[in-house]
Protein: DNA mismatch repair protein
Amino acid sequence: MNLTTDSQTIADLGLFSSSSGSSIYELYNRTHTRGGEAVLKELFLNPLSDKEQINRRSSIIKAFAEAKLQFPFEGALFDMTEKYLMEGADISNGSPQRPLLGEKEILQGVTAVIELIQGVRGFTNQPEIMAMNPFQNEREKMKALVEDPVFLPALQQSLKSRPSYSAIAAYDTLFREQQSGKLIALLKHIYYLDVYLSIAQLATERNFVFPKALEKGSSLLKLVDVYHPELEKPVANSIQMDGANNVIFLTGANMAGKSTFLRSVSTAIYLAHIGFPVAASSMEFSVLDGIFTTINLPDNLGIGASHFYNEVLRVKKVATALSQGKTLFVVFDELFRGTNVKDAEEGTIAVTGAFSGKNSSLFIISSHIVEAGEILKRYPSIGFKYLPTKMNGHIPEYTYQLEQGITDDRHGMIIIRNESILEILKNGRKKRE
Structure:
């Protein structure tokens, strides 16, 4: 089962691209093989929605992180193996046709496959791998493939001497005609191993934590010291949500850090559903059916849709999923900012109040409209957090640290005056001295 999400959420979280030019995928991608890179992208696009699958994958990566193991193969070995097995082959029907290769390429390919088979056997027989309980299922599958009796000659072949021409021809027939399916399956296992080891290395270097997935429907989120993984000097924050406190109404001035906080929490939840480590001190979460964020919603000029109408359609999409009994994590950054203040206030109150009644799902709604927050206090399941602005004379300073309550910061005009906007409009820009 996979977690439901959409392109807006993927864009909001910068999973594959962001305005800074980097991405979460690039941060997590330390793979050594092209196949591993492709598997990592597939995992990013298909987060899980099953507790057992999530915890199992997480436990495998955590075990590798604790063992501090390196990827046991050279990347060049896979270039030769893949070219030998699959270049020019039609594998769409599961039965690859042999590509035409020269004598040298066949020799290199045969040698690479033999080295790979022997390397996998050596890896799976390492004591630390044999003792790694979370990885036993994968280990046994890899071991069964390379120790299949058909590959016994390859296991016994010396890599120090070149096989005879007749042996090379026999290996070529075995590898590319008779047992190519098993070898391609073996490569797939190694690609996953590449991902597990590379993510484990990242977790160790960055001190990321491995979240614990809980039963779906228990409506629990505990995040301690969460921060955005791409920040060099992050400020961490902690939140706890459950069925009785399923909505956070977040206020704060522009530049106070609301969007960064929303991305930090959302990214952690998304990555946790892949089974990956996250940028936090600890995390427990109820498995969800879906995650939808609306942080940087564009106008859809192609269909003539305004920003406000896109917001309405976004809320409708979430409401439809909730009406189908889905458990969701939902973020709206500045809900209904595409319309006038009165409509935005009324809409924010109505929608946020309705969300509070969906206690199997979790919501974070940010807003500049503090008056809406005062009215929303009538809903017991809504909690209130704000990111403060501290004034150092006439200069605003931001702590990026969550506080309880609703902000009373009103420093917009101070910032406008600090930039001398009204003076420029009245007197014109001063001449350069």
Summary: The mean pLDDT is 90. The radius of gyration is 27 Å.
